[in-house]
Amino acid sequence: MLIRHSPDIAPSEITPYSAYLRRREFLAGFGAAMAFGGAAQAAPLAAARGPFSTDEPRTPRADVLAYNNFYEFGGRKSDPAENAHRLATKPWTVRIDGLVAKPADYRLEDLIKPLALEERVYRMRCVEGWSMVIPWIGAPLSEILKRAEPLGSAKYVAFETLVRPEEMPGQKGLLQLLPWPYVEGLRLDEALHPLTILAVGLYGETLPNQNGAPLRLVVPWKYGFKGIKSIVRVSLVETQPKTSWNMQNPREYGFYSNVNPNVDHPRWSQATERRIGEGGIFAKRRPTLMFNGYAEQVASLYGGMDLERYF
Amino acid sequence: MRAAPVFPLAGWRVPKLAVYVAGFVPAIWTFYLGVMDRLGPEPIKALEQELGLWSLRFLLLCLAITPLRRAAGVDLLRYRRALGLLAFYYAALHLSAYVALDHSFDWIAIGRDILKRPYVTSGMAAFVILVPLAATSNNAAIRRLGGKAWARLHRLVYVAAVAAAAHFLLIVKSWPAEPLLYAAATAALLAMRAFPAVLRRARSIPAPRRRRALTS
Lengths: 311, 216
Prior knowledge:
The complex is a heterodimer.
Chain A: H1 11-14, H2 17-21, H3 23-35, E1 48-49, H4 61-66, H5 79-83, E2 93-98, E3 104-107, H6 108-112, E4 118-125, E5 130-140, H7 141-148, E6 156-161, E7 183-187, H8 188-192, E8 197-202, E9 205-206, E10 216-218, E11 231-237, H9 244-248, E12 272-275, E13 286-287, H10 295-298
Parallel strand pairs in A: 1-4, 2-11, 5-12
Antiparallel strand pairs in A: 2-3, 4-5, 5-8, 6-7, 6-11, 8-9, 8-10, 12-13
Chain B: H1 16-35, H2 43-72, H3 80-102, H4 107-116, H5 118-135, H6 139-145, H7 147-154, H8 156-171, H9 177-194, H10 196-203
C-alpha cells in the first residue's frame, strides 16, 4: 500500500526565493572559501612604533606584496603572490626545542599573545641587489627565546620552514630550486640582538602569505634570504646549523650573509642596490651601506672577524 | 594563371621588411611599458632582461634556419639576415639599457663588471662577436669578402650563441627552468651542426650540394 504524505513544508517556504536565485553565487563563494582553505585573511594588527625605525620612504605596499622570493611557491618573483593563497596558516604550531629548559609546541596565538607588538620600519636588502623599506609588525626574537630558557650550551639558533607540497607548489615537481625544508640559522648573540625580530605583520595588517605568514624572521643587517618565512620550528643548538642557500652553493652564500658592500657575491657586485618602487626606468642605483646601515648597532658583534672569510 | 595553391598562402611570401617591423614590436612595447611605469617593481631589470631575451630568441631562430631546411625541408633562408640583424639590434639595446639605465654611465663600475663578472664578460663577448657579423650582413660585404671567407667569419655566430646562453645561466640564482631551456635549445641547434648525418638521415635525402648558402 502506498501512503502518500503531503510534505509539511514546501521547499519554497524554507529558502527565500531571492536566496534561491542566488544559489550559484553561494556555491561559487563556498568553492573559493575551500580553495583558500583557512588562509589567514589580512586582518588589521595594532602595534606601537618600535625603536630602530627608519624615516626613509616606505616601499609601496603593492610592491612589498608582489615582488617576493619565496621559492616554496615558485622561482619567479610573481609566483608567491599568485600561489601563496593556497597555504593554510590556521591552525599553526611552532616547535621550540633543542637546548632549552622548556621545549614546547606552541599554538601561534599562544606564542604571540604575551608579546607587545611593535612596528619596525626596516631596510631590507636582497642578495640580488635590490632593496625595500618595510614597516614590519613583530616582537624581538629574544623575548620568545627567553621564554623557552636557553641552556648555557646553546650557541646557535636554527629555524625551519613548513614543508607542505600540496599547498606549496615549489616543493614538488621536476625542478625544485632548493632542498626542503628551507632552513636558516643565527649565532645566539645575533638572535638575541634587539634588531632581530619575529614578524607577524606588515603595513598594519597580519602578514600576507607571500611575505611569510604567519611568522617570519627579520634580520635587517643581513641579506633578505636569512629572513626565513612561515616558521614551524626554532631550535637552540650547540654547533653552527646548516642553512639552505649555503647548502645550495657554499661558495656564493655564507652562513653570516651580512650585508657588505665590500664583499661581492662571486658573480655580481654588492656595492650598489636598486630601491624598489623608486622612480621607474630612470631611477639611479644607491650605494649599499655596511650592515645595511645598521653598523652602529651590530658591528660590535663581528669585532676582529675577517668578514671576507666569514661572508 | 598559376594553379590554385595547396595552402592558401603558399606562393605568397612574407616580405622581409615585415620581419623587421614585427621584430621591433617587442622593443617598442617594452619601452612603452617602461615609460608608463608598468614594468613591475624592478622596471630597469625587467626592461634589460626583456631586450636580452629577445636578442637570444632571434639568435636561436637564426640558428634554426639551417636545421629546419635540412631536416624538415622548410626554407626560410631569405629571412635569416633579418633575424640575425634583429638579434644584434636587441643586443645593442640590451647593452644600452645596461650602460645608461642600469649603471648611469658609471664606466668604472661597468669596466670592472666586464673584467670581473663572468656573466657580464660572456654577454659582452657575445655582443662584440655580433658586431662584425652585423657589419657584414649585406650583399656588398659578401662580394667584398668572397663567399668562403664570409661564411667562415659568420661561423662565429656559434660562439656568440654559446656566450649568450651562458650569460643568461650565470646571472640567476639556483637553476631555474628558463635559462636552462634556452641553454638546451642552443646546445641542440649546435649539435645538429656537429652531427649533420643525423639530420640527413632524418630526412633520408642526400645532403644538399652546397652545404652553406652564401646569401643570408
